Amino acid sequence: MNYRQATWERETESGEAVNEPLLSEKRTETVTHDDVDLPDELVRDELTLPEPAEPEVASHYTRLSQMNYSVEHGPYPLGSCTMKYNPKFTEDVAALEDGAIHPDRPDEYAQGTLAVLHGLQEYLAEIGGMDAVTLQPPAGAAGEFTGLLVARAYHRSNDEDDDRREVIVPASAHGTNFASAAMAGYDVVELPSDEDGRVPVDALEEAVGESTAALMLTNPNTLGLFERDIEEIAEIVHDAGGLLYYDGANLNALLGRARPGDMGFDIMHYNVHKTFASPHGGGGPGAGPIGVVDELTEFLPDPHVREADDGSFEFSEPPESVGKVHGFHGNWLVLLKTYAYISRLGDAGLKDTSAMAVLNANYLASQIDLDVPYGPFHHEFVASAGDVDAAEFAKGMLDEAVHPPTTKWPEIVDEALMTEPTEALSKDQLDVLADAFTAASQKTPEELAAAPTTTAAARIDQTSAARNPRLSWRDVEEAVEEVDE
Ligand SMILES: *Cc1c(COP(=O)(O)O)cnc(C)c1O
Fold first, then answer.
1. What is the pLDDT of residue 16?
2. Which of 292, 323, 344 is the last residue in one of the domains?
3. Residue 133 is part of which domain span?
4. Ligand 1 test: best mutation among 174, 219, 331, most atoms within 8 Å of CB?
């Protein structure tokens, strides 16, 4: 079955893209009296209608959506990104709210909004086993950065900031961990994985010391493996005076079952646009709330929503706040959708989510022929494309009307295909995905090199896209001329 239901064939064999003009290039030609023989007295001189007309606009966007691929087209197992289906009831809730509140409205007239934000802070604190949560950071990476600013403020309050200059990050971590630590002013110490894909406790013991500000960990890690020694790891870091940071991107594996706070983590971020299904992809919008333990709450960003003695809600500035990381209420509509999602699912629903996410990943892995070197895993697994370049393998999967997995990361698996089906896929869709793996692995190198043949665009020039991006629809020279004029 073809989930994409493609409605066009690519126009040329040479790999050019199917083209859809820009909206600004579209003109709607309506029938005029020149086309029809009308009595003179019925002819109006001039009738100017806005163009393009609404049906043209609708078909333009529909066509663009068909040239694209989304979670609503079919399987989208992009490992680590948790591309789960976004249920429409959360969109309905957000649509009710859209534009309803001015960000400067005084707290006493924004009690409903503040109650939702406060409720979400409480939900997330409970889910993560944290003492306090801020909803301000607009993405996971921004949460990491904020969390590390909080860590620095804490060490500074102990007069240790000058000495604690290092953040330890395992080699399998997401690139944002390294970047956030560097942006927060730290030296990054990379910790290699041991042969079973986890943090080597001996090596950690050696790396940790008086210069350690924090260890950043993802658990389960990017191989889908649970760090079994997590309590010992926490003890080692804490004994050295460091803090333990939890990258929450894989929280979907643990929802309702285990809590980072109980494992000994001091700071964590939540990728609500992954774990709690609010829209994700194409760079936004998202939100990356962070949770912290008691000792760190005074450093949280400003503003923070708190409940006053009389039961009302208000924005307040934590006493030793690291300052602002976002304006006003954070990414309010994303947060509202998260609140709706958690409220609708409840305890039992969240538990089902993690159970199905793990079950689906394990079922899918059992249906494919590729080597999966590390396991048993949780909600995602990393298969190896073996002798084949993982990016080529992924191109081959595109022709099977699925989105391919994340490729070439984590680097500890050769030609990695990091696969996360999420709980949202049916057995039917998981089988479609398994067939796509099989089909790609049966393709010859020539067939892979020619793929994809059924998508709107063939192979784009990735180097030019990165080095020489043209982000305007206008001809460059024309635009320059216009500016000169
Ligand atoms: C997605 C992800 C991040 C970064 O989160 P964003 O919300 O995309 O900024 C960090 N760590 C891991 C493991 C991730 O998968």
1. 52
2. 344
3. 88-344
4. 174
